[in-house]
């Protein structure tokens, strides 16, 4: 039945009342409701919708008329209370986002005329074009996107070099500029060590180790994994080195890369040897025997960090950096003979494989089988971030599902002695990896236990105490789950090797003068000097979470919610570009 | 007119939009300024459409117009005339006119005459009938026809005499600039502009030698009709956009309109040609008893206001109606207006919006930017019931289909010999 409530002299505008009507209509026990001011026109509307009552006759234009079709009389008080509470709390719950977002380059540049860096995280097929636009607008480009053809990478980098700009990437996972984290990066203490690296987790491991050893980072410039290939010729790395060489805040330079082609290596090392600043190089997979001039050559990521910290403090570089290891006495069955490495970070996986291959004195180096970084003598190191595991799935740094499957599988194998894995904290990574991996680890260990085997878990925890995830908390959670947590990948791998009674030979390094030096072409462009001179002002083209990390560290970022031009229609893209280029002949 | 690129041609078009100076000069029977209305002819909203393809509200309006003109004695006779094709149809836009919702305009209906002094061109629009049962939403009851007759016999002539007494007519730019600072966006909300109009015109009305009761009725009608200015604004923006599209080059959208079936746009480089695609149905808030399922698809010429840069394009100007765009209220409105900047060429400094840090309204929708970004203009709109005679059931927003803009660009590229 219909109930009428007239609130005299209670004006509300019609929009409020329509919203209120929706709100009241949704209450339990209400079949239909209409709330309007009592103007003649509104009364007609009520008549049309069958909600007219005699009481409305008395209502005037300044009276709020509430007509409710409801079952029980008893609900009316409740409904009236809901009306009052709605009207007294009309301020829209603050959905205000601090992130300014735009939909075009034009507006991004208008809103942020001082922008000097674009982060590109759009699908690979569009990435080169967007990076090209960034360069055209005079911006450095950080290209997170992968699947960019190497020819396009080369032409972008040539164009950038000519303009005095840097292209970091493609497939550049990490970077830090003046403390501002780019993409997957850690929050590190500011300091005098600058890094140029061609590997994402390699940079993360070195920067976080330096931080935890008490050193600090000026900048970490990612180059993308192919920069040191013969095709690209280290264009970004050479420009990055020049930039750090001219950067006042950088006193020590660290280079991180897989071993490059010889010609490229010679060019890079030659340039490094011409610098007045000390340099640490880590060409992962090479086992250097000596330091040369100002260039100190490290074997592991941790050693690179330790040398850099000594240099940064002005301390002498030691011939040998070895750390005491706490190795638990492993109670293994005779059949438990293998190490199973389940990595999320590609460089960390490669380092583990390198150390295990070294300990096993494998003559043929690392055995390559799809998805494995090492598979030999029963031992296996898997890079779960490899394309074959990430097709259509999130990266294991974000999503634990693939790794949990591999933990279950490895635990079932009776030959497995130790499961070795990495956890990378920082911006972009999973919020609480320990909590999601711990149950899988406990379950696998318990299952092995019932089958009469003790299964060991050793983790390398990469991150800093300032990271969004709490380092100590993650460590504690893993330890509670029975995991032996090590603060570097090097230590984690060496611990596992020692548990397996495998030794690594450590040879002190000699220090000899540099063989060749190149002392030309060292000037950094004004644009690179400006980029390294202060916090970047960023246009983030693509993934919004990158913007959040940048603004959280006090730098300016504009979010560009990128979409393919013309919804991806090739035909319309062509028409647009023809119209844009058209010249009238009048 | 020397321009080398489409950007330069577009600049010439938007210079004429920004430079438009519309004056409201008269109210006259439509047939006196639109000769095409001789005989049994009606104007309708949107791109061309035949009677049989019209949606319910527009057909209902046709019945009402036939009754108002005395062509038929009742609904049955009117319907059979319409179905037989006795009545000829022309889109409003083809005869310098615009019409709200159904846009049905007949020869004896009074229309506003707006003169765009910068270009010397005119535009016309019928007067607002108020809310509830009204012709533009497809109602045709006796009450509707009676009101239309009163508007023809009393309201129109009175406003005509008052406007003539102003000598110059009313400078609409001044009124628009005032009202935008008072919270109007000129499509969903015109209450401030309607009051400014009343304030300007009433000294002239009360000075007329006429029957006191009729004078009271006129003043009462103007005071009660919150959306009265909408139709003046439509004529004004039509006049300005028609003045601007004398530059026959570029990709500026010069008209957007809907006939209930198709959405039509024109761009500066393609003159009178329409580019159409099926309309969407508005989303919004509904009066009690009605829901989205009752809503008629998008209809009316009123999107000429958005083409000019107000209405949904200036959502942020009207905090009072921002919640039509979504639960986020003011922030959503701000985001919507910022989004509209992406598809506009510039901002019009003549009409600054206080709630937008005094940024000017959007100036010149570029069809290229629409297609490039996939951002469609936002149109504020009343929502008609899909059955004739019911009238307005809500209000909300709607966006055009992208195909209109794609077709326009393709045709222009073809005209320029690029395809």
UniProtKB/TrEMBL annotation, chain A:
It comes from the Bacteria. Residues 191-283 form the CoA-binding domain. It comes from Paenibacillus profundus. SUPFAM superfamilies: Succinyl-CoA synthetase domains. The gene is fdrA. Transmembrane segments: none annotated. Residues 342-496 form the ATP-citrate synthase/succinyl-CoA ligase C-terminal domain. Pfam families: CoA_binding (PF02629), Ligase_CoA (PF00549). This is Acyl-CoA synthetase FdrA. Gene3D superfamilies: NAD(P)-binding Rossmann-like Domain (3.40.50.720), Succinyl-CoA synthetase domains (3.40.50.261).
From TrEMBL, chain B:
InterPro entries: AllG-like (IPR009499), OXTCase_su_AllG_h-dom (IPR024033). It comes from the Bacteria. This is DUF1116 domain-containing protein. It comes from Paenibacillus profundus.
